[in-house]
Amino acid sequence: MKYLEDCYKKEFESEIIEVKDKFIVLKETLFYPKSGGQPNDTGKLNDYNVVFVGKFNNQISHEVDKEGLKVGNKVKGTIDWDRRYKLMRSHTAAHIVSNVIHKETGALITGNQLELNKIRIDFSLEEFNKEKFEEYINKANQVMKEGRNVSSMIVSKEEATNILGERFSMLAKGLPESIKEIRIIEIEGFAKEACGGTHVKNTSEVGEMKLLKVENKGKNNRRVYFTL
Q: How far is CA 69 from CA 2, 3, 62, in A?
């Protein structure tokens, strides 16, 4: 999964190994497929616009805007960098604020969705206090201003359990047997989490978060919206 090795790489060359109508599978790709609450990358394969990227049957499929590409064609892929970088910043921001809330309250994430103009996170939390969430956002902004390095490593499931502890061991029980390795994102001196998304290299790149709204979605379920 080349898109996770270097999130800052914008261009690459590859070969088409499968074509079905407007859906293209490449030998290797930098395009991020829609997953884990993060939208897919868009961009170009030669002069074809990539409008959607998804992962199906363990293959990454690129939907282009017209037919014409053939198996064996060499292609140059170009990532829409403005979109990718905004989502990198947003995903790192989501990790920071989620960990602030977890450290402050013990709440666990029950859902999340990144969008270009806002970020949504759902928490399992009994207390509903908007002023508290303003405090959490302020603390998250402080972490970003501190300029902490963000790094990643790929380890076995057993190693991930040892590194991440109980929060991960509960998740690992539900993972498919086929998944042998786990990617861990570490925000220096602050948090470590299993994650397959794209991230910036330093928290100072994220910018500043602003709380949009907090919703009560029922018993112990709080929904937070914020933007950068």
A: 22, 22, 12
In contact, 104 and 55? CB cutoff 8 Å? no
Whole-number Å distance between alpha carbons of 130 and 128: 7
Give yes or no for a contact between 141 and 209, defined as CB atoms under 8 angstroms apart: yes
Q: DSSP assignment of 172-207, as one string?
A: HTTS-TT--EEEEEEETTTEEEE--S---SBGGGT-
Assign a CATH topology to domain 107-227.
Answer: Threonyl-tRNA Synthetase; Chain A, domain 2 (3.30.980)
Q: What angle do CA 178, 41, 186 make, to 5 degrees?
A: 60
Measuring CA to CA, how many Å separate 21 from each of 1, 25, 64, 122? 24, 11, 9, 37
Per-residue model confidence (pLDDT) at position 38? 95
Strands (E), 115-188: 119-124, 150-156, 181-187
- The CATH class that applies to domain 2-79 reads mainly beta
Residue 65 CB partners (closer than 8 Å, separation 6+): 22, 48, 49, 51
pTM for this one?
Answer: 0.92
Task: For residue 162, count other CB atoms closer than 10 A to its CB.
Answer: 12
Residue range 125-163, pLDDT digits in tens: 877 778 888 999 999 999 999 999 999 999 888 888 888
State the Cα–Cα distance between residues 119 and 108, nearest whole angstrom. 17
Relative to beta strand 74-79, strand 43-45 is antiparallel
Cα distance between residue 39 and residue 128, in whole Å: 29
Which sequence spans correspond to the domains of the chain? 2-79, 107-227
